[in-house]
Amino acid sequence: MEYDVVVVGAGPAGSMAAKYAAKAGAHVLMIEEHATIGQPVQCAGLISTRAFEGCEVPETLSRRAIRGANIHAPDGRVLTVDGKRTMAYVVDRGELDRAMALEALKSGVASLVKTRFSSLRRQGSDVIIAALSQGEPIEIRTRVVIGADGLQSSVGRLAGLERVQTVFTCAQAEVYTNGALSDFVDLYLGHEVAPGFFAWAIPTRWDTVRIGLCSTERSLDRLGPLIERLSSRSAPSLLHFAVGGIPLGPPPCTVAAGTLIVGDAAGQVKPTSGGGIYPGTLCAKIAGTVAAEAAAHGNTSKDALMEYDTRWRSEIGRELETGLRIREGFNKLSDDDLNYMIRALDDERTLDIISKYGDMDHPSIVLRKLLLSTKAPRLLKLIRPLIKLAVVKSGS
Ligand SMILES: Cc1cc2nc3c(=O)[nH]c(=O)nc-3n(C[C@H](O)[C@H](O)[C@H](O)COP(=O)(O)OP(=O)(O)OC[C@H]3O[C@@H](n4cnc5c(N)ncnc54)[C@H](O)[C@@H]3O)c2cc1C
Prior knowledge:
With 396 residues, the protein is an alpha/beta fold.
């Protein structure tokens, strides 16, 4: 088997990279280790309207519209942020992944499932990939391999690329609820519920809610009590359960000779929310295009592929770096600080600013606006270091 570009992994980043490589004229193969693309699901499925558009799937893909969030302080106080318009959608990740893969196939991509990448080696300017396909060993010759193989990326590791900086563990369950579902998500802050990150309850388009959390410690142990607390029924009502990790902080380089990595494999995840679909698919478009052009020009050296690294960092690198510093600063806040912050933000003018400038994909914008507008001295004291850290570190 011989291809210009081989994409390992058929998640959102893989399908998008494969599609863009094919659209740029390359002969592309995408391989996926699981028998069904999109399974198993390890995601809450919450994406901004911008991210949904960026996924380039038909408008008919079923989804639930979300217009705001109830943010729960550790002391139980609730700040309701109403975007007053559809800000996000909740999708079924399995369906989304299959719809994206289908779009890639329509663009001419070939695909194999139950095909597990196991190793790569350079031969001249080509890459020889070894995989196990339906239990049979196969070899594929390609000009460029794109590692869209998620958090544990063996493509990245075998190409000698450094790993992502930090991984947060997450646990989530989808539970039946006989309570009314709203078009708001609920987010829970505090060291008790989710140290280092947050917990969530996200309504789906069915009568179910995805309850989950990411944290720096014992996420799985914390899930049971969280479900008990939030579930509207006393009987256990679980439909789906998932554990997973969120990689934060891209490695210093996402390219080697004949290889590039994208999506979770490259730590292209928003550190403030853990959302990886928006940044991953954005970067995947660049990855696919650059890989196809490099293959067409017969130059797949690291220098040639560095165009991908440079271009994705100029598109979104700064926002990810800023998000990382905001997350670091946020994690230094005590529960008392968080309680104060939620209380201080709960005024009409401030909520208008949040509703006007709040952007799931670019949270630094609203933080800057808040910094400029707030008169509350303690709130200023809490927000200023977050922005300062972000500016100093991303500028250095
Ligand atoms: C609990 C949880 C909730 C989340 N919620 C959200 C959310 O609401 N919104 C959001 O935007 N993000 C969310 N994320 C993050 C999001 O799921 C990821 O950022 C996103 O899936 C990354 O896409 P990807 O294509 O890079 O990787 P993945 O989706 O992980 O896809 C990688 C693919 O590669 C395949 N693969 C791996 N190794 C091999 C191999 N050796 N050979 C062949 N195939 C291989 C895998 O089977 C998989 O299909 C969540 C994550 C978790 C853990």
